[in-house]
Design goal:
Blueprint: H1 5-17, E1 29-32, H2 48-57, E2 62-64, E3 70-72, E4 75-80, E5 86-91, H3 113-124, E6 146-150, E7 153-157, H4 165-169, H5 179-185, E8 199-205, E9 209-214, E10 233-237, H6 242-250, E11 256-258, H7 262-268, E12 284-298, H8 314-321, H9 326-333, E13 339-340, H10 365-374, E14 386-390, H11 395-407, E15 412-416, H12 419-427, E16 433-439, H13 445-449, H14 468-479, H15 483-500, E17 503-515, E18 519-520, E19 536-537
Parallel strand pairs: 1-10, 14-15
Antiparallel strand pairs: 2-3, 4-5, 5-7, 6-7, 8-9, 9-10, 11-17, 12-16, 12-17, 13-17, 18-19
């Protein structure tokens, strides 16, 4: 029998209020999600909040390990045809769905190849309207994209060779879901997930608490043969204030916090990025290279804005790129915990990254002023104000850039708006100049360069960049199987982005985490994934 919403909340409050239950602060892993959580359906795993939750609930065919390599997950092995258009995956036979009333006797059944075919077709279903539909669009065969060979063999057919496809398959969009659950719960599947992951849903009071418990039948084991995960479960709170989150962490009520709000960053860190002495031995600071490029985007679709908009001129975009000091910004606003983005859009940490092959922009006010003069605005005269839209937590950064650009004659007005509004404006192409970031979906430069491919919608092409030379190089790269040749093509494509400047790269990020000393086996990754399978609490 389904619980009503009222009864559900009542039971949740009773369950979570019982300190003698299995869910106690001493045993469950606890973190806060300031951004909220919109869904537990992996087809909608667009935001970090949904990706983190989905990672606990679902599995993919392949995954990215701690050092950024693609490794087997539910697919124990695979074969690629000579023409590189057919991928045959051999599936594990010990992977079971979570126990759920949708199955006979409430016991989860074994996951088979047809479940993968269903899950992937669902991503392409226009009625589902998944933001992840792009991952297969124009890549898989239009007649037979997916095939079931037998229960433990699944086949994916491409329309043409596409080297990054294995990386695509590691994304949470490409998780396996139980067809029976999707069909039974319909739209409510978003809050009634049934996957094969290390944890399963216990309760979710939206905006208040999410509780997941250990999946006792999870298939992975450690090297000693002990079944994963070690944790009995996790509890997620949804306080939207970073100050409240920090206070709860200081009180020991959260096991970690991700990133540091500017308002208390200087309380914890030195400008060098190290912990202040008062915090040493009390908390653990974790940092790790993060495949995330923070940038300012420029709307390039000439149909959206006036021909008088100065951003339409390449020299003005280039002047902005070299008109502010990234290094000073990182020192004072990021406490040295990022790398200035002076080598294009593709970040450090990827194998194709080479700062000697892709030279971006450094602070050069004289060059910026010369570019302005070349554009017809000597000393900035005649240049109309440029509005930069950002969200509250990046207001200080935007104001820093605006002040420095103002010194060389580029007038910038900072417009601070809510994140949901900015996302809506950029998706619709209605923001001429905006703050954004691109976090790697998988560890391949193609994922970053796809942001500028003209045939891609928004996401990922928020700037509506359209350049025939770029498209040609990009299409060559994604079909190239030789790594060194492909890397050279990636670098050539990135150089075009530097020259055309549809974006102003700001910094290549680092994962920054504060962790309680009682937590073990909790390691950051290049994609800042919330990896809890091997985490323990003392």
């Amino acid at each position: 029998m389904r619980l009503s919403h009222h009864n559900f909340l009542f039971c949740l409050l009773i369950w979570t209020g019982c300190r003698s239950s299995v869910d106690t602060d001493a045993t469950y892993f606890r973190y806060n999600e300031t951004a909220g959580l919109s869904s537990l359906d992996p087809a909608f795993a667009k935001s970090q909040a949904v990706i983190w939750a989905s990672h606990q609930l679902y599995n993919t065919l392949v995954e990215v390990d701690s050092v950024g390599r693609l490794v087997p997950s539910v697919a124990r092995s695979w074969e690629i045809s000579a023409d590189r258009r057919t991928y045959i995956f051999h599936l594990r036979t010990d992977v079971f769905f979570h126990d759920d009333p949708v199955f006979p006797g409430g016991v989860g059944r074994r996951s088979v190849a047809s479940d993968w075919m269903y899950s992937f077709h669902r991503l392409l279903d226009a009625q589902v309207a998944s933001p992840g539909s792009w991952v297969f669009r124009d890549k898989v065969d239009s007649l037979k994209p997916f095939e079931v060979v037998d229960d433990s063999t699944f086949q994916l057919n491409l329309s043409k060779p596409y080297h990054p496809i294995l990386g695509i398959l590691s994304m949470k969009y490409c998780s396996v879901v139980a067809p029976e659950a999707v069909k039974k719960y319909g739209m409510d599947f978003r809050r009634h997930p049934v996957g094969t992951g290390p944890f399963q849903l216990t309760a979710w009071a939206e905006g208040q608490t999410l509780i997941l418990r250990k999946n006792d039948h999870y298939w992975e084991r450690d090297l000693r043969g002990e079944r994963l995960p070690y944790l009995p479960g996790l509890r997620v709170s949804f306080y939207d204030s970073k100050a409240t989150e920090f206070l709860l962490f200081r009180q020991g009520q959260l096991d970690f916090i991700n990133d540091l709000d500017a308002s208390f960053k200087d309380e914890v860190l030195l400008k060098s990025g190290a912990l202040k002495s008062i915090w040493q031995n009390k908390i653990v600071l974790q940092t790790h290279p993060y495949l995330n490029t923070e940038y300012l985007g420029i709307q390039m679709d000439s149909t959206q804005f006036s021909s008088a908009d100065p951003l339409r001129l390449r020299q003005v975009r280039q002047a902005i790129n070299c008109g502010f000091d990234r290094r000073k910004m990182i020192l004072y606003l990021r406490n040295s915990l990022s790398t200035p983005a002076e080598s294009g859009f593709v970040p450090e940490g990827l194998p194709s990254f080479d700062s000697s092959k892709v030279r971006g922009y450094r602070y050069d006010p004289e060059r910026a002023m010369q570019l302005l003069a070349d554009a017809g605005f000597p000393g900035g005269r005649g240049l109309s104000p440029i509005q930069l839209q950002t969200i509250p937590i990046y207001a200080e950064m935007a104001n820093f850039i605006a002040r420095q650009l103002g010194e060389i004659g580029i007038p910038v007005q900072v417009d601070v708006i809510q994140k949901s509004l900015l996302l809506d404006l950029t998706a619709k192409g209605k923001s001429p100049f905006f703050r954004a970031c691109w976090i790697a979906d998988y560890p391949e430069a193609e994922n970053y360069l796809s942001v500028f491919y003209s045939k891609n919608p928004a996401p990922p092409n928020y700037t509506r960049f359209n350049n025939a030379a770029f498209d040609r190089v990009f299409e060559q790269a994604i079909q190239e199987v030789n790594d060194s040749v492909r890397y050279r093509l990636y670098q050539e494509a990135d150089r075009i982005i530097v020259e055309e400047s549809p974006v102003i790269p700001l910094w290549y990020d680092r994962v920054i985490r504060l962790v309680q000393p009682s937590v073990e086996g909790f390691q950051p990754t290049a994609q800042n994934q919330l990896e809890l399978r091997r985490t323990r609490k003392n």
